[in-house]
Amino acid sequence: MKIKKSITDDLIENGFTRINCNNYELSKTERESFNVFQNYYKSLPPDKFLHLVDPENIHNCYRYRRWGRYSLNPLNLSLKELGHIPYNQSRKYNKNAGDIERDFAPLTEGILNNLFLKSLIINNFKLFPTSNSMMAKIWHVYVHLIKISTDHNGIGKPSPEGIHQDDVDFFSIHLIKKVNCDGGKAIIYNLKEIELERIDLNRPLDSYYVIDSKLMHDVEDIFKRTNIGRAERSILILSFKSFINK
Of 108, 136, 174, 227, which one's alpha carbon is 20 to 30 angstroms from that of 114? Predict the structure, then answer.
């Protein structure tokens, strides 16, 4: 994989940037692996903890997800699968579900071994502005596969917790698939919660990258564009956190 756009300066200056899908150059094998990766979203299990962040929709599950982790050695860019554990955020960053162990469905072996996913993680890490002290640490990479799906006149909320941070160093969000869907723009805020920009992801691999400590973010609700079929928005979130000294 080759990412043809350099984003380091943009991240340092603005705290965020976007990359459109044309800037990801995939080999034939990686493209085939990406097609396989897209299919994993068809069978994502329901998010059984959705009611914690959206109690008004306790009987309407519109979010489906899996999550898992790798460790990343920044010096040789090697990835190692980490055992499955429940996902936990501090209440400081997630007021509704913080300090609660949410045992989301784990990544399958097929996902963990997917060539496209591993290549994207490594190439993303190369783009981030990392200091010497950060390069002297082992990193954890959190992988979230999330699909928002709604039918009839329903609303899907990609970010029911509202404006927030994720308590990581960097993260990237990549569109995997979008069907019959309006809304869903990412909203970037400064730390005073003043809106800076809205980012619309429309084609597979349209993406944006964020330095988490510099900004806050949210996502618009999604709605059906037509009355035929469901509205679906599938994304991949990759979060990078420097974790321990080597």
Answer: 136
Q: Read off the amino acid at residue 140.
A: H
Q: Which two tokens stand for residue 72?
A: 């990343």
Q: For 5, which DSSP code?
A: S
How many domains does the chain divide into?
1
> Would the pTM count as exceeding 0.90?
yes
207 forms bridges with which residues in the sheet?
A: 19, 174
Q: To which residue do tokens 């992801």 refer? A: 201
Token pair, residue 221, equals: 């609700």
Q: Do 64 and 177 contact (CB within 8 A), yes or no?
A: no
Q: Domain limits at 214? A: 2-245
What CATH number is given to the structural domain containing 218?
2.60.120.620
Nearest to 13 by CA among 194, 209, 221: 209
Give the residues across from 141 on adjacent strands: 70, 240
